[in-house]
Amino acid sequence: MREDVPRVRPLGLGAMLDEAIWLFRDHFRLYFGIMLFAALPVGLLYGLAEDGAKLYFTLTAGERFPPWGAMEGLALEVEILIAAVFSGVELIAVRPFHSAAVIMATSAVCLGARPGAAACARRAMARYGRFFTANLLFLALLALGFMLCIAPGILFMLFCYVYLHVVVLEDGPLIGSLGRAKELMYGSKGAVFILTVLSFLLHDAVMAVQLLIPPGFGGAVLAGAASAFHWTFVAVLSTVVYFSARARLEHLDLDLRVARIDGDGGDEGAAPVL
Which pTM was predicted? Predict the structure, then answer.
């Protein structure tokens, strides 16, 4: 398929995975550039914190910082504290920008444009406050759902799987976008459930890899990179789900093909509001 032809069409479960893998592989430089903007600063700070903790432990305990399997007492408490702080920073502060930039980049590719990592990062940063609020609202409702016997949280996650995509690409109101996301998931919740399970399995695999990396500056940066790769692919996959749902329910693929008959094939910027 030509680069300037929209890649928007209804897809089945297997085709969604294939499309996401193709996008991630063939546009790796684009996504890697976004990861540098979004994840590298946090990874470097995480590494510096790890080295600071090792130095603090050496000075106070008078011995070398132990590897993961031998951690106990003060070393384990320090490592858990650092991991918890930076995981919270990544989840609440960094991921809205990271996910929004990836969503913009993927939507641009799907619509036949040629996006640049810097352009997508600038657009995501320019509207960071909106994306941060949307992410915070989503996390709060998700946490509330899991506190209410877990099942409501799972249902909310399935119904609002593309909530951030609606906020980023359609520029709708934050509360109203919840209903819009639910509408788009009509008939797709089974596929979304399977994709969510696969995403969690991928997350567990990333966590297992991180446990094999020794603590310290280099290990922290590598662990941050593994997490960034995971969440980038999840954002690509969920964007494929979003466009597949719009093509199936709203015939967006036909509208785009008609609209682009006399078009110029897009530009280097992120996708427009749909």
Answer: 0.82
